[in-house]
Amino acid sequence: MRQTRFVAYVAALALVTTASVLQGEEAGPAGTLKGDLPPAQYSRVVNPIEAKVALAEKAMELYEKEMEKPAEKRRAAMLISYKEKASAAYYQVALAARKAIKMVKKEEHKAEIKATYEDPNLSKATEIPLGFASEAQNKGDVRTAVGYYKRVLAMDPNNPVATAALEKIARTMQKTQEKGPKERDKKKDDKDTPSWKRTGR
């Protein structure tokens, strides 16, 4: 009987020790989300973000798979579509991170979520349309460029690149509009002026 109890005690002790070791391996450093939060709470905070990250990575995998094809076999429309979907998915990661920030109390935990998930994924989300906008602008397609810049500002209202680009486009368009009437007036003046005056005779 004593031997049976002893064996049961040793087995229970081993189980507790194993669980403690496993928890120690899973726990992060003190002062971090993983180190400070109970496992269930950590999962509630982080798992929804990680799920969004997986979707974003899947979208980029489709783009990369298309890019692996020879240049003549790549479908330009699909490449754009995949990157636009990836941009939207990265933005969803940033939104999930913002939601998670509200679920924790400590400022260091909020900062960790922002630095680990929100900021880098917001940057990825905006880099894609910024690239498309730049390409469109270089081709002279200002309307498409403006559309992409506005998409960036919808995700990141304080984005300095999109803000500066739109301001520059607005100034250019204003100068063009102001120049138009002046050129029309000049042509009208030239038409009304006798030819001998226009030629300096």
Name some characteristics of this structure.
201 residues, mainly alpha, 8 helices, 0% strand, flat
Largest sheet: none
Annotation field: number of helices: 8
The N- and C-terminal alpha carbons lie at a distance of: 131 Å
- Helix % is over 70%
Helices and strands, in order, run as: HHHHHHHH
- The overall average pLDDT, rounded, is 84
Tell me the structural class.
mainly alpha
Radius of gyration from the CA trace? Answer: 30 Å
> Count the strands?
0
Shape: flat
Task: Explain this structure.
The chain is mainly alpha-helical. The protein has one domain. The protein has helices at residues 2-26, 33-36, 39-67, 76-101, 107-138, 142-155, 160-192, 195-198. The protein starts with a helix and ends with a helix. 20% of the residues are buried. The model is unreliable at 6-25 (pLDDT under 50).
Annotate the secondary structure layout.
Blueprint: H1 2-26, H2 33-36, H3 39-67, H4 76-101, H5 107-138, H6 142-155, H7 160-192, H8 195-198
Give me a quick take on this structure:
The chain is mostly helical and 201 residues long. Helices cover 83% and strands 0% of the residues.
